[in-house]
Amino acid sequence: MSALGLSFAKQIKASRTFGPFITKLAHRYANLTGHRAHGLRYDDILIEESAAVQKALGRLSEREAYDRAYRLRVASMCAIAHQELPKAEQVKPEEDVRYLKPLVEEVEAEEAERCAFDHATRA
């Protein structure tokens, strides 16, 4: 299983029956989680304990790593004060892009390739 968890997103998006319904439900759920109200993106709340996520965090650009640390500090201050950010400072849905997912998938592909290469036998 991936460090990002099990995902049926591609199959659901391809479905004409479930796609629109699940998309609306997913947007409502994302708004209810409250991470955007504290200034966080979805990838900021990923569990950092897996090796793949740790390696992916190390591959972030300097600017993205700084922005991530800043968002986490702002969210911590919001949690301490029991307040949400003003609407103008909250993360909008179009700004909530997956910046860490491609890096995690890249790390997992490299690990799978390394494992396959290690288990390859000479003919």
Describe this structure as you would to a colleague:
With 123 residues, the protein is an all-alpha fold. It has one domain: Cytochrome b-c1 complex subunit 7 (Cytochrome Bc1 Complex, Chain F, Orthogonal Bundle). The protein is 54% helix and 0% strand. It is built from 5 helices and no strands. The longest helix has 20 residues, at 62-81. The protein is flat. The model has no long low-confidence stretch (mean pLDDT 88).
Tally of contiguous helical segments: 5
Number of strands: 0
Q: What is the third-level CATH name, the topology? A: Cytochrome Bc1 Complex, Chain F
CATH C-level class: Mainly Alpha
Strand content: under 5%
Give the total of domains. Answer: 1
Gyration radius from CA atoms, angstroms: 18 Å
Mean pLDDT: 88
- Order of SSEs, N→C? HHHHH
The amount of helix comes to: 40-55%
The name of the CATH architecture is Orthogonal Bundle
Shape: flat
Q: What structural category do the secondary elements indicate?
A: mainly alpha
The end-to-end distance, rounded to whole angstroms, is 30 Å
Membrane topology: Peripheral membrane protein
Keywords: Electron transport, Membrane, Mitochondrion, Mitochondrion inner membrane, Respiratory chain, Transport
Protein name: Complex III subunit 7
GO biological process, one term: mitochondrial electron transport, ubiquinol to cytochrome c
Task: Provide a brief overview of the structure.
It holds the Pfam family UCR_14kD. This protein is mainly α and 123 residues long.
